[in-house]
């Protein structure tokens, strides 16, 4: 199914009849498929995409997106730091482990067996 959706999108963006000359979507679609040649092109592309707000929130720190959750995490970190936690799952870990656990690798999931997966996964 994802391949069919991708092919439909490729057909849609490659059909010149769907784009009016100079439309913002056409410019973004064409420019995002090739390397940007200089800073002016990059700046123009960023202006065309400026109406989209969700990438800003995806790249914002937790303190900006949800200060209440950030505060809860900080309080829990202080609680664990100040006390002796005998439960292994509540022990402090290194920064590198925290970065790995919070990385894009946590987006991976698989079902089935190696070489016989139900879908791409990992």
TrEMBL record:
Keywords: Acetylation, Cytoplasm, Pyridoxal phosphate, Transferase
Name of the featured protein: Glycine hydroxymethyltransferase
Domain of life: Eukaryota
Localization terms from the record: Cytoplasm
GO molecular function: glycine hydroxymethyltransferase activity; pyridoxal phosphate binding
A GO cellular component entry from the record: mitochondrion
Cofactor(s) the protein needs: pyridoxal 5'-phosphate
Family annotation (Pfam families): SHMT
GO biological process: glycine biosynthetic process from serine; tetrahydrofolate metabolic process
Upper taxonomic lineage: Eukaryota, Viridiplantae, Streptophyta, Embryophyta, Tracheophyta
């Amino acid at each position: 199914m994802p391949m069919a959706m991708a092919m439909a999108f490729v057909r849609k963006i490659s059909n010149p009849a769907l784009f009016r000359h100079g439309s913002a979507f056409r410019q973004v679609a064409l420019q995002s498929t090739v390397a940007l040649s200089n800073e002016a092109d990059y700046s123009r592309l960023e202006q065309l995409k400026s109406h989209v707000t969700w990438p800003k929130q995806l790249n914002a720190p937790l303190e900006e997106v949800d200060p209440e959750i950030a505060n809860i995490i900080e309080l829990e970190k202080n609680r664990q730091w100040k006390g002796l936690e005998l439960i292994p799952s509540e022990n402090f870990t290194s920064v590198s482990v925290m970065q790995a656990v919070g990385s894009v690798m946590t987006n991976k999931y698989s079902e089935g067996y190696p070489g016989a997966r139900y879908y791409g996964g990992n």
